[in-house]
């Protein structure tokens, strides 16, 4: 992960990644029943994505 992100994980494969920008949950991954990692969080994976997000785009139009 990029510098400044906070990531916590356990031995079973669950991990959470936080953006320091407003303590935003950027990613929550876990292995599905087939062992593939799945991301539960819908949204932005970077601070750039969040700061230029949908709300900002709506006001610019």
TrEMBL record:
It comes from the Eukaryota. It holds the Pfam family Aldose_epim. GO terms for molecular function: aldose 1-epimerase activity; carbohydrate binding. It catalyses: alpha-D-galactose = beta-D-galactose. Gene3D superfamilies: 2.70.98.10. GO terms for biological process: galactose metabolic process. Mutarotase that catalyzes the interconversion of beta-D-galactose and alpha-D-galactose during galactose metabolism. Beta-D-galactose is metabolized in the liver into glucose 1-phosphate, the primary metabolic fuel, by the action of four enzymes that constitute the Leloir pathway: GALM, GALK1 (galactokinase), GALT (galactose-1-phosphate uridylyltransferase) and GALE (UDP-galactose-4'-epimerase). Involved in the maintenance of the equilibrium between the beta- and alpha-anomers of galactose, therefore ensuring a sufficient supply of the alpha-anomer for GALK1. This is Galactose mutarotase. It comes from Caenorhabditis remanei (Caenorhabditis vulgaris). The lineage of its organism: Eukaryota, Metazoa, Ecdysozoa, Nematoda, Chromadorea.
